[in-house]
């Protein structure tokens, strides 16, 4: 899971289609990683492919692992960009909300006590 999270989502070019059926979509893509490594791999969308058109020469969004980006076994089709921005912004929003709640919460006041000298 860590290796997958460290990977990236890239825009790939569809170079061949092995199977494009309602139950399963299998196609070959060509993409370049952020490190500049060119890869050509096979994508198997699984038993429930997202509803979008795939054609040779078209584009598909794929997510690859960090350690082996060209592996067809670790490559998967995705319809959304990388989760890294969300993984950074969400904890910051939660932290800001917790600080705001703490500041808005009424503070407990210590009871006021009079010194014994004033009571005489």
Description:
The chain is α+β, with helices and mostly antiparallel strands and 120 residues long. Helix content is 25%, strand content 32%. The protein is built from three helices and five strands. A hairpin with a 2-residue loop joins strand 1 and strand 2.
What is the CA-CA span between the terminal residues? Answer: 73 Å
Strand order of the largest sheet: 3-2-1-4-5
Number of helices: 3
The biggest beta sheet is recorded as: 5 strands, antiparallel
Q: Indicate the low-confidence ranges by residue numbers.
A: none
Q: Secondary-structure element order, as H and E?
A: HEEEEEHH
The helix content, as a percent range, equals 25-40%
Rg (C-alpha, Å): 27 Å
Question: Which structural class do the helices and strands define?
Answer: alpha+beta
Task: Classify the beta-strand content into a percent band.
Answer: 25-35%
Tell the overall outline: rod-shaped
Mean pLDDT across the residues is 76
